[in-house]
Design a protein that fits this description.
This protein is an alpha/beta fold. It contains nine helices and ten strands. The structure holds flavin mononucleotide.
Amino acid sequence: MRVNKDQLKRMKKNEFVRTAIEYVDAGVVITDPELPDNPIVYTNNGFEKLSGYSADETIGYNCRFLQGQDTNQDDIDKLRLAISNKEKIKLEIKNYRKNGEVFWNELQIYPVFIESEHQTYFVGVQQDVSKRKYAEERSDHYLEQVKRLSTPIVPIDRNVSIVPVVGEIDDERLELLLHNVSAHIQKSGDEYLILDLSGVSHFTSQLHKGVYQLNQLIKLMGAMLMITGIRPEFILEGIESDFSLSTVKSFSSVKQALVSIQ
Ligand SMILES: Cc1cc2nc3c(=O)[nH]c(=O)nc-3n(C[C@H](O)[C@H](O)[C@H](O)COP(=O)(O)O)c2cc1C
């Protein structure tokens, strides 16, 4: 029986779509949820390249073979829920290639209703985003280090610690400083904290308020704040502000502050 014009058009369209998908760099899989365990019924070249598995090795199997020991269970739960609700989903999941290599898979899954078959299929699009993920992980790690190093608390005597502040102080750094100092004093039981501001580039009103808050906090914890290395304009600004530093002990150098403690 010869196909009619409409069928011919549809076949051509199917072939066109199939060829186009084969040229896509990303992995593309189609699964059939009407079959037991929602197995793959189609994969493109991109998927073979990404996963290392040939189409013969994957057709008929559920995509979970890409998961492994380090795949986050929460991600798998999210996928299961979205698929059972026939909702689209996009997430980044740790997967494994055939050779055991781990990669970050940016996975998108769409339920697609195929009119002619009166059935919903799932289309999955996979992209290897490992490079970006590892770069993000590295930069998060460095940012964490920078933050930690931006408010170092150095114990210099039995009951004295010093915080050398270098550079500019913004809200985030101030909050970190208050948090770290209170945790440190609670743990160490230090009686004195020297805040050395000789490395500060700008004496802003924000820093002024921060020193005031730090002083209040330290007093409440039964310890004493001493500031060193400040410039006269810093004190002058405080006279007019709501955050007077008149009760904060100030010294021109760390050495002087230490002498006064002894
Ligand atoms: C179209 C489609 C593509 C999928 N692709 C992947 C994939 O690339 N990586 C992955 O870890 N899971 C993928 N999955 C999810 C798993 O097949 C499975 O649904 C998930 O592990 C949750 O179900 P389970 O708890 O029964 O394993 C895909 C699912 C569908 C429907």
